[in-house]
Amino acid sequence: MTRRADTPALAARVARVGASPVREILALTARPEVISFAGGLPAPELFDAAGLRASYDRVLAERPERVLQYSTTEGDPDLRAAVAARLTGRGLLTPGEDLLVTTGSQQALALVATALLEPGDTVLVEDPSYLAALQSFGFAGARVLPVPTDASGVDPAALAELVVRERPKLLYLVPTFQNPTGRTMPAARRREVAEVAERHGLWLVEDDPYGELRFEGEPEPWLAADPAVADRTVLLGSFSKVLAPGLRLGWLRAPAALRRACVIAKQAADLHTSTIDQAAAARYLADHDLDAHLATVRAAYRERRDALLAALPTALPAGSSWSRPAGGMFLWCRLPAGRNATELLRSAVAHDVAYVPGAPFYAGPADQATLRLSFTTHTPAEIAIGVDRLGKALGG
Ligand code: PMP
After folding, report:
1. Do 82 and 153 share a domain, yes or no?
2. Can you tell me the distance from the alpha carbon of 30 to that of 232, in angstroms, rounded to the nearest whole number?
3. Which residues form the domain of 231?
4. Are residues 201 and 257 in the same domain?
5. Are 138 and 34 in a shared domain?
6. Which ligand 1 atom sits closest to the C-alpha of 174?
7. CA dist., res. 237 & res. 227, Å (int)
8. Which of 168, 176, 185, 296 is the Cys-Cys partner for 211 at CB 3.0 to 4.6 Å?
């Protein structure tokens, strides 16, 4: 018998990311009777499956030799041109060459982390912030610190103080319909944040997967469009919430040197994003009216948000508060002090309703009374039933 030695251990960075108790409880919500406000999923019945199928058919019929072949890391020129035209149309002058197509905007986060961060570097994030961004920065070995926030986003005075004290390399923001809070930074607050980045030398990562899901009011300007920080802002976008997340298509708009570094990082990660998926998306944008499709999605989500907002006041315990998002997919809730949303999740699941506790979204100490509700995947009638169950589970 050969003696067998153990294999070397997993890298410390993976060992640090342990199993999550919340994930285990949420695994119990796959039952059809559960009304789940937990997932961050777009409504599947609104996917334009026929339109996408036609686009795939067309690129496969017309250019099989191209769309089934390896391609360039930067991405399909037609897709980059189409995205660039949409950005330019909304006031952010963008040549197609300034864009890198990514495998979802999640990959863009990983590429930016690889291109910018040394282990031990400091990253500032909103408190709370998008969970998987915290993970990406954590995997890069960064020290992730929360910036205090109010209803308008990061507090500029607290931000300036942290920047001076902690010398961070970048600030990660989801300024519009943030995940998890649904909150949007007004233009004046964006200006104040830009000023801090300009004065102290700081990269800004502006992650905007939800901006096109606005139900009311006027769009706020992108930080990337502020001339003071144009040379230090990376804008991330995604087709996940406007078309379908299964496409895994996103993009990154960055100053040239950083974009080139991201291209090299992407070569090592996956050579390039799926050729056929990029070609089909470009075809879709040329043959279909994405804005008309988005109008349908927005109308449905708005109705669902309204159903959630209408049901919460009578269902949630007295003393609860919640955000009123003007778009996106999420609403953020704070239960009366002393309640623990992580502990209450088990009771919710027993009542056939689910949410995500707020705790994992905090880079620092968590507010245990918070939770995130997604309003996208159920009809208004189901939402009303779900909120009623939630009220019973949380003890009224
Ligand atoms: N950023 C934010 C803020 C998100 O909420 C998400 C998805 N939930 C992503 C990035 C990643 O999206 P995708 O990779 O599908 O583009």
Report:
1. yes
2. 42
3. 49-287
4. yes
5. no
6. 3
7. 20
8. 176
Q: pTM value?
A: 0.96
CB under 6 Å to ligand 1: residues? 40, 104-106, 130, 174, 179, 207, 209, 238, 240, 245, 250
**Total number of domains constituting the chain:** 2
> Does 342 fall in a domain?
yes
91 vs 89: CA distance, rounded Å: 5
Q: Is 271 exposed, middle or buried (0-12, 13-18, 19+ CB in 10 A)?
A: exposed
CB 224 within 8 A of CB 255: no
> Which atom of ligand 1 has the smallest separation from the CA of 240?
15
| Together in a domain, 224 and 313 | no
Q: How far is the CA of 133 from the centre of ligand 1 (A)?
A: 9
Same domain for 119 and 53? yes
Give the CATH number of the domain where residue 305 resides. Answer: 3.90.1150.10
Structural domain includes residue 7: no
Confidence of residue 396 (pLDDT cuts 50, 70, 90): low
Pocket-testing residue among 41, 106, 210, ligand 1, by greatest number of atoms within 8 A of Cβ: 106
Return the structure tokens found at 338.
């002393």
Separation of CA 234 and ligand 1 centre (Å): 15
Give the pLDDT confidence of 268-316 residue by residue, as tens digits.
999 999 999 999 999 999 999 999 999 999 999 999 999 999 999 999 9
Which of 287, 309, 337 finishes a domain?
Answer: 287
Spacing, Cα 136 to ligand 1 middle (Å):
12
| Position 254 confidence tier, pLDDT thresholds 50, 70, 90 | very high
* pLDDT digit string, tens, across residues 150-171: 999 999 999 999 999 999 999 9
Is residue 4 situated within a structural domain?
no
Q: Which one-letter amino acid corresponds to residue 216?
A: E
Residues 343, 267: contact at Cβ < 8 Å?
no
